[in-house]
Write a structure and sequence with these properties.
This protein is of the alpha+beta class. Helix content is 16%, strand content 38%. Strands 1-4-5-6 form a four-stranded mixed beta sheet, with no helix packed on it. β2 and β3 form a beta hairpin. It is elongated. About 3% of the residues have low confidence.
Length: 149
């Protein structure tokens, strides 16, 4: 069985993510065309579902090899990143239309509930990354015995 590498971290740069998204929006408003040419990081499409017990994240990563995919988990955050390599079609071919992003990609998500980092599953099937994250039980009840002195 092949595994996707998952690294655990403390809330994977939530402030950095928020700041970067704000700056991206500002630059895009000023000059959308020049900003898109300079931008090197692309963001894959993501769907996030929540049940009472878990989060399910689906990410569209067609053409990304498992070896080039990484996942980092914080207490309430997840970072999906890696590289999609461009395929060589032909040496004498010219682009007529180029819409598929290649190179480094990154997606940072903040979750509303802490996750149990011991119960995480990730699979890559037919270009879709499926990540199951069990919610951490915050209401763990612990009985304390009271001794007499």
């Amino acid at each position: 069985m092949d595994y996707i590498k998952i690294r655990f971290a403390d809330d994977v740069g939530k402030i950095d993510v928020d700041l970067q998204e704000t700056l991206d929006e500002m630059f895009n408003m000023i000059s959308p065309m020049s900003y898109q040419r300079r931008q090197r990081v692309w963001k894959p499409q993501v769907d996030v579902y929540e049940t009472t017990d878990e989060f399910l994240i689906l990410s569209e990563l067609a053409g990304v090899n498992r070896e080039n995919l990484r996942i980092e988990l914080g207490r309430k955050t997840i970072k999906i990143y890696g590289i999609r390599r461009e395929e060589t079609i032909s040496r004498n071919a010219r682009y007529r239309l180029a819409e598929i992003p290649y190179g480094y990609f990154e997606r940072n998500l903040s979750l509303p509930w802490p996750i149990d980092r011991e119960r995480v599953e990730a699979t890559l099937t037919e270009g879709l990354l499926h990540i199951r994250l069990a919610k951490l039980s915050v209401e763990r009840v612990r009985n304390i015995s009271i001794r007499t002195s």
